[in-house]
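Help! Submission page says 'invalid entity' but I think these are all valid:
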Amino acid sequence: MAITALLVLVMVVTGLHWAAMPPSRVETIDVRTVHIKGEFVESNLGTTLGADGKVVVRLIAQQYSFEPQCIVVPADMPVTFRGTATDAIHGFVVGRTNANTMLIPGFVATFTTTFRRTGEQLMPCHEYCGTGHEAMWGRVQILPPEEFLSKARGGERLSCVQR
Ligand code: CUA
């Protein structure tokens, strides 16, 4: 009885844990063609507002920068990040928010978060990726939703990189 009860308890706890913190899906990508074709070509990087109202940020990490270097997102709306790396393991965290992931060559990292405060945040690489690691960082501009929506309506890829 005790063993059966213990096994049932383990199943319940494990089930609840996986429901609360599902493991991320494994999505692979070919590092040899990531710049040439598919989702992560340069013209497709940055922030988009989909026809369904979803905000998606696509970015690439490589020694020693992010592309785009400056990312625009709205506050108070779910934002999905999709990113990958081309050469070494990188990662990023946006200021003191919970937007935080590793970027591994050959894999697409994705998560969805909502930023509560407007303003600019630093986005450093937080995985040691080589001699230039400490100089690798980007910026994230979190705009009020109305301002973001007015900029994003055209459907083009947004970023705040000064060109
Ligand atoms: Cu990229 Cu550290």
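Support: the input was valid. A stray whitespace character was the problem, and the output above is from the cleaned input. The mean pLDDT is 93.
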